[in-house]
UniProtKB/TrEMBL annotation:
Origin: domain of life: Bacteria
Originating organism: Methylopila musalis
Protein name listed in UniProt: Coenzyme PQQ synthesis protein B
NCBIfam families the record matches: PQQ_syn_pqqB
InterPro entries for this protein: Metallo-B-lactamas, PQQ_synth_PqqB, RibonucZ/Hydroxyglut_hydro
Gene3D superfamilies: Ribonuclease Z/Hydroxyacylglutathione hydrolase-like
Domain Metallo-beta-lactamase: 51-264
Annotated PANTHER family: COENZYME PQQ SYNTHESIS PROTEIN B, HYDROLASE C777.06C-RELATED-RELATED
Keywords associated with the record: PQQ biosynthesis, Transport
Family statement: Belongs to the PqqB family.
SUPFAM superfamilies cross-referenced by the UniProt entry: Metallo-hydrolase/oxidoreductase (SSF56281)
Pathway in which the depicted protein is active: Cofactor biosynthesis; pyrroloquinoline quinone biosynthesis
Function: May be involved in the transport of PQQ or its precursor to the periplasm.
Length: 314
């Protein structure tokens, strides 16, 4: 099963258009220790030559330009057949507008997330006869092409633009989900936003060949320290990497083939190659994804196919 990281940054991208924090400054200066990143999305080959976008970022058009696997294959023909949404945040849904030029698509999301799309007249630009909306039930596996996909709730919150004074952070429901993607014996778990790593989250990722996980902030109060805002990572629905209950500690003993951070905020010093924070996450067995990163997972079925070919040749 092949996956391409289309966008490894959190909302705003890296560097962010209006920011010269110490981490963004390096990118504006073209410092060789950092690489520019677009906003949060991955593409997974869910069938032979058929790709599903998991989240549609505001940078989707430039991501397609940078990614041959998802470029058009013929006259008004695209390998992108499906889009699955993990929440209703701007960095995950705005790219749907980029997909408005009448190609058949299936849009997967929980009723909560599809409800947000339905309630916004701008998304009416997606032609009803072309874009099918398929509501997904948490915990109920379904098929996309040759892949088996399951959504599961993770602690989160409603999108920023729907926050009210009654905001609850850490609710588990259809507002913020993780996705389990299996094909040919390979298994990827993608959780770009998660407020708390609880036992349910640990059980969900156990045994996966690869985990792509929320790498928004290194320190919970990093944005305040950087002077860019007062919100903590947890207040934004993002568990920090470091500290008590941070993702480094929480996933320390989990059995996962590869642990990869994604959805990385522009203030996060892990973006700087060789920084103490980057070295700390690498020492803990994590990779920091960048745009264009390809993740190929063989899986047992893939190996069986190779073994069968071998025996035929013999
Ligand atoms: C988040 O991940 O917290 C959101 O994407 C923030 C935003 O809306 O930009
Ligand atoms: Mn985000
Ligand atoms: Zn910045």
């Amino acid at each position: 099963m092949r996956t391409v990281v289309l966008g490894s940054a959190a909302g705003g991208g890296y560097p962010q258009w209006n920011c010269r924090c110490s981490v963004c400054a390096l990118a504006w200066q073209n410092d060789p220790r950092v690489t520019r990143r677009t906003q949060s999305s991955i593409a997974v080959e869910t069938g032979q030559g058929l790709w599903t976008l998991f989240n549609a970022s505001p940078d989707l058009r430039s991501q397609i330009l940078a990614t041959p696997q998802i470029q058009p294959t013929g006259l008004r023909e695209t390998p992108i057949r499906s889009v699955a949404l993990t929440n209703g945040d701007v960095d995950h849904v705005d790219g749907l507008i980029t997909l408005r030029e009448r190609s058949p698509l299936t849009l997967y999301g929980t009723p909560e997330i599809l409800g947000i799309i339905d309630a916004n007249p701008v998304y009416g630009v997606l032609a009803k006869d072309m874009v099918a909306k398929s509501p997904v039930t948490l915990g109920a596996p379904f098929t996309i092409d040759e892949a088996t996909v399951e959504f599961f709730g993770v602690p989160g919150k409603v999108p920023l633009y729907l926050e009210t004074e009654k905001l609850v952070i850490g609710d588990v429901g259809g507002e913020t989900v993780g996705v389990d993607i299996r094909r040919g014996g390979a298994r990827l778990v993608y959780i770009p936003g998660c407020a708390v790593v609880n036992d349910d989250v640990l059980a969900r990722v156990d045994g996966a060949d690869a985990l792509l996980f929320d790498g928004t902030v290194f320190e919970d109060d990093e944005m305040r320290k950087a002077g860019v805002g007062v919100k903590t990572g947890r207040r934004m629905g993002h568990v920090p990497m470091s500290g008590e209950g941070g993702s480094l500690e929480a996933f320390r003993d989990v059995k996962v083939g590869r642990k990869i951070y994604i959805h990385i905020n522009n203030t996060n010093p892990v973006l700087i190659s060789g920084s103490p924070e980057r070295r700390a996450v690498e020492a803990a067995g994590w990779q920091v994804s960048d745009d264009g990163m390809e993740i190929a997972l063989g899986g047992s079925a893939g190996r069986r196919v190779e073994a069968d070919r071998g025996s035929t040749a013999a």
